[in-house]
């Protein structure tokens, strides 16, 4: 059984227990590579527009974001995170931005939130209720609290979208180790039309 499992994985099929969704994706991927469809996406690691975009992971923006901004493969570093928030000065989003600037030549950063964001009105208590519903044990929840996780703070929504963008822009712009030449601007995108509304920085 172990040999069969290893063979299936090596050939690019889903390992035992994977979902039908992943099986379908792997089948598409094999055909994509075999047909050479990757060739039209060829580029390198340096963004042609020297641009990084921090945006939301919302499914409505999967293709809309790049289309509305006129970006093609290779133009920009796009960092997706719930709510388009730079939530911590030394978290993974800020780390990615610093790598983009210091290693990959980015000179402009856009923070692009969007209307009707699902992360806007999140609450820690609601998320914990959902965890319980999805069979996360009380013991594990309490263990996380014991490790110092404040769910109300960690999983809270941001309320005012424009204010959230302002805070993220301010954090990036005034970060102690962000090179001073980097230009940072904030926007709210209409989730339907893709229209960008600039957010005035304070």
Structure explained in plain terms:
With 202 residues, the chain is an alpha/beta fold. It has three domains: 1-42, no CATH class; 44-119 and 157-199, Beta-carbonic Anhydrase, Chain A, CATH 3.40.1050.10; 124-154, no CATH class. Helices cover 40% and strands 14% of the residues. It has eight helices and five strands. The chain has helices spanning 2-10, 20-34, 61-69, 92-102, 124-133, 138-146, 151-154, 161-173; strands at residues 51-55, 76-80, 108-114, 183-189, 196-199. A five-stranded mixed β-sheet has the order 2-1-3-4-5, with helices on one face. It is globular and about 50 Å long. Residues 1-10 have low confidence and may be disordered.
What's the layout of helices and strands?
Elements: H1 2-10, H2 20-34, E1 51-55, H3 61-69, E2 76-80, H4 92-102, E3 108-114, H5 124-133, H6 138-146, H7 151-154, H8 161-173, E4 183-189, E5 196-199
Parallel strand pairs: 1-2, 1-3, 3-4
Antiparallel strand pairs: 4-5
Q: Any idea what the shape is?
A: globular
CATH class of the largest domain: Alpha Beta
CATH homologous superfamily title of the largest domain? Carbonic anhydrase
What structural class do helix, strand and pairing data support?
A: alpha/beta
Rounded average pLDDT: 89
CATH domain topology of the largest domain: Beta-carbonic Anhydrase, Chain A
Query: Helix count, per DSSP?
Result: 8
How do the SSEs run, as a string of H and E? HHEHEHEHHHHEE
Classify the helix fraction into a percent range. 25-40%
Oligomer: single chain
The second-level CATH architecture of the largest domain is: 3-Layer(aba) Sandwich
């Amino acid at each position: 059984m172990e040999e069969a499992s290893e063979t299936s994985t090596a050939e690019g099929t889903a390992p035992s227990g994977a979902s039908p969704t992943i099986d379908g994706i792997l089948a598409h991927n094999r055909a994509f590579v075999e047909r050479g469809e990757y060739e039209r996406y060829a580029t390198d690691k340096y963004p042609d527009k020297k641009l990084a975009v921090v945006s939301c992971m919302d499914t409505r923006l999967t293709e809309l974001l790049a289309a509305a901004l006129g970006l093609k493969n290779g133009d920009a570093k796009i960092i997706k995170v719930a709510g388009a928030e730079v939530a911590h000065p030394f978290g993974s989003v800020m780390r990615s931005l610093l790598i983009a600037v210091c290693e990959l030549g980015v000179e402009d950063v856009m923070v692009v939130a969007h209307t009707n964001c699902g992360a806007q009105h999140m609450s820690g208590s609601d998320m914990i209720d959902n965890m319980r519903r999805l069979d996360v044990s009380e013991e594990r929840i309490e263990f996380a609290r014991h490790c110092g996780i404040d769910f109300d703070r960690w999983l809270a929504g941001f309320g005012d979208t424009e204010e959230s963008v302002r805070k993220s822009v301010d954090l990036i712009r005034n970060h102690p180790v962000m090179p001073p030449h980097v230009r940072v601007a904030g926007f709210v995108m209409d989730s339907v039309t893709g229209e960008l509304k600039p957010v005035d920085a304070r």
